[in-house]
């Protein structure tokens, strides 16, 4: 079956799907987004046809309940903001590493930060390559001048 996109703005579709972290009745759909003259059932079926919702159950009162699919959950988590640039990511990462080093240098803390794990596309090399690490650890070395009991 071909996947169709429901005729809603992306942000409305995302906002609707954020309500489906567990099963919900279709009659609530109109209270969450503007559905114009459509019914909650029509909207739910459009999202089902697009692969974002699936039928959960019909209760004893005839009320239809829907739940999110994996694809619907992904859209619910989507951010439509522009991704940050590599330069911004590198600057932010350098700041986190610096703060971890300053934290470790402060003897009033009872512990040290020994590892920072970074993941995501900022680890991708600048040149095209068939693979790249999906995560990378950065060690914030403990200050050797003091030792904290663990």
Spell out the key features of this protein.
Arc Repressor Mutant, subunit A; 2 domains; alpha+beta; two-stranded antiparallel sheet; 5 helices
Question: How would you describe this structure to a colleague?
Answer:
With 150 residues, this protein is an alpha+beta fold. It has 2 domains: 10-76, Orthogonal Bundle (Arc Repressor Mutant, subunit A); 86-138, no CATH class. The chain contains 5 helices and 5 strands, in the order H-E-H-H-E-E-H-H-E-E. The protein has helices at 10-17, 29-32, 40-49, 70-76, 86-105; strands spanning 24-25, 53-58, 64-68, 116-119, 135-138. It has a 3-stranded antiparallel β-sheet. Strand 2 (53-58) and strand 3 (64-68) form a beta hairpin.
Concise structural overview:
It contains five helices and five strands. By secondary structure, the chain is α+β, with helices and mostly antiparallel strands.
The biggest beta sheet, please?
A: 3 strands, antiparallel
User: What's the helix count?
Assistant: 5
Strand order of the largest sheet: 1-3-2
State the domain count.
Answer: 2
* CATH level-four homologous superfamily name of the largest domain: Winged helix-like DNA-binding domain superfamily/Winged helix DNA-binding domain
Determine the structural class based on helices, strands and strand pairing.
alpha+beta
Distance between the termini: 58 Å
β-sheet strand percentage: 5-15%
The beta-strand count equals 5
The CATH architecture term of the largest domain is Orthogonal Bundle
Overall form: elongated
| Weakly predicted, low-confidence segments | none
CATH class value of the largest domain: Mainly Alpha
The oligomeric status of these chains comes to: single chain
Round the Cα radius of gyration to an integer and report it. Answer: 24 Å
Summarize model confidence as the mean pLDDT.
Answer: 82
Q: What is the third-level CATH name, the topology of the largest domain?
A: Arc Repressor Mutant, subunit A
Element pattern in H and E: HEHHEEHHEE
Helix content, binned percent: 25-40%
């Amino acid at each position: 079956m071909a996947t169709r996109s429901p005729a809603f703005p992306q942000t409305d579709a995302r906002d609707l799907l954020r309500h489906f972290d567990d099963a919900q009745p279709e009659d609530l759909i109109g209270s969450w987004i503007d559905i114009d003259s459509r019914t909650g059932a029509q909207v739910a079926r459009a999202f089902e046809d697009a692969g974002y919702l699936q039928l959960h159950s019909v209760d004893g009162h005839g009320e239809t309940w829907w739940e999110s699919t994996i694809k619907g959950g992904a859209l619910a988590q989507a951010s439509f903001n522009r991704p940050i640039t590599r330069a911004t990511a590198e600057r932010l990462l350098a700041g986190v590493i610096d703060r971890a080093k300053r934290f470790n240098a402060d003897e009033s803390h009872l512990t040290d930060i020994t590892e920072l794990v970074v993941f995501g596309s900022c680890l991708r090399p600048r040149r095209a390559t068939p693979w790249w690490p999906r995560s990378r650890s950065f060690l914030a070395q403990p200050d050797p001048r003091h030792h904290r009991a663990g």
